[in-house]
Specification:
16 helices, alpha/beta, 8 strands, 2 domains, Four Helix Bundle (Hemerythrin (Met), subunit A), 8-stranded parallel beta barrel
């Protein structure tokens, strides 16, 4: 088990969104090499998976990933409380409740975005989690669901959850359409309404309000930070990971990332993971966007896609792919 973490509450000025099938532990390790300060999130993990599928399988992470938040999916207060207790034992820096996912599978499990229609239940979940852990409990949600998309609806959701002790709300600035749109369409079709999130912060200055949805550049992040406490970036951080290499310097006043040293660390990590039974393809897939928009990017992606998933593929595949873009990286 990971040793219990005793660090202070994480800085949410910039975070990478929880993304199902994307932000696994290999992805998060890679992202941490690119930014020392960004708050990272796990994929959403259901309470049932943790309680019945084995905590180690779903909660294990690399110590280098800190600061790290666990995102939970569920609606049973006692099950969420038990998972929150385990999360603290495993050393997570934050526990986040998913009230934003619109997929049919999630709705059938009675959690995700559909919970916005029952703020009292969400408040009960927050109360139960906070009763068993000292780790910050946060909520990620939409600005509305279906035809319940007025600002008053959003306020009616926020207020009881805040009264239950949630001080941090991560707001995806789109409503969710629970019937008729896929999760992918729900990330694209409902229009963004950043102004509504700004208004929320103005009306509740005591709350920490983080914005999410459609953010693609650090310049946009800086604009949002003039109004809000933090920004969360999802697909852009994954598909164009070099964006993260500029985060520490641009948003935290830190040092620039030495990219060549980072690439050598990735290769070392791959060797360690392969020795433990991991498959190269499941690690290297997170690197496909590394050189997006740069010369050689297509050759880099193709080489990994064609070779990393082959039986017995080793770190030499990754080094050869990197050499297509950085010929001198592994020169003697």
């Amino acid at each position: 088990m990971t040793a219990s973490n005793t660090t202070t509450e994480p800085n949410r000025r910039f975070s990478v969104a929880p993304m199902l099938d994307w932000t696994d532990r290999h992805c998060r390790y890679f992202h941490r090499l690119l930014s020392q300060h960004a708050l990272l999130y796990t994929e959403m993990v259901t309470t049932g998976a943790i309680l019945h599928g084995g905590a180690e399988r779903f909660l294990l992470f690399n110590e280098a990933e800190h600061p790290l938040a666990l995102q939970l999916g569920g609606s049973d207060p006692q099950a969420l409380a038990e998972c929150a207790r385990l999360a603290e034992q495993w050393g997570y820096d934050e526990i986040n409740l998913n009230v934003g996912c619109p997929s049919d599978r999630v709705q059938n499990g009675m959690f995700g975005a559909c919970l916005m229609a029952d703020p009292q239940l969400v408040a009960q979940c927050v109360t139960a989690m906070k009763a068993v852990t000292s780790v910050p409990v946060t909520v990620k949600h939409r600005i509305g669901i279906d035809d319940q998309d007025s600002y008053e609806f959003l306020r009616r959701f926020i207020e009881p959850v805040a009264e239950a002790g949630c001080n941090t709300f991560i707001v995806h600035a789109r409503k969710a359409i629970l019937k008729g749109l896929s999760p992918k369409q729900n990330r694209e079709i409902p229009p963004l309404d950043y102004e509504r999130v700004y208004t929320l912060k103005q009306d509740y200055p005591e709350l920490e309000i983080i914005i999410n949805g459609g953010i693609k550049t650090l310049e946009e992040c800086q604009q949002h930070l003039q109004h809000l406490d933090g920004v969360m970036v999802g697909r852009e951080a994954y598909q164009n990971p070099l964006m993260l290499a500029e985060v520490d310097q641009a948003l935290f006043g830190g040092d620039a990332v030495e990219l060549e040293a980072m690439l050598l660390q990735i290769c070392d990590y791959c060797e360690q993971q392969l020795a433990s039974g991991a498959q190269l393809g499941w690690i290297a897939r997170h690197l496909l966007g590394l050189y997006q928009g740069q010369p050689g990017a297509r050759r880099f992606r193709r080489y990994i896609s064609e070779n990393a998933f082959q039986p017995g593929a080793d770190v030499g595949v990754l080094k050869q792919a990197l050499a297509l873009v950085k010929p001198d990286l592994f020169a003697a």
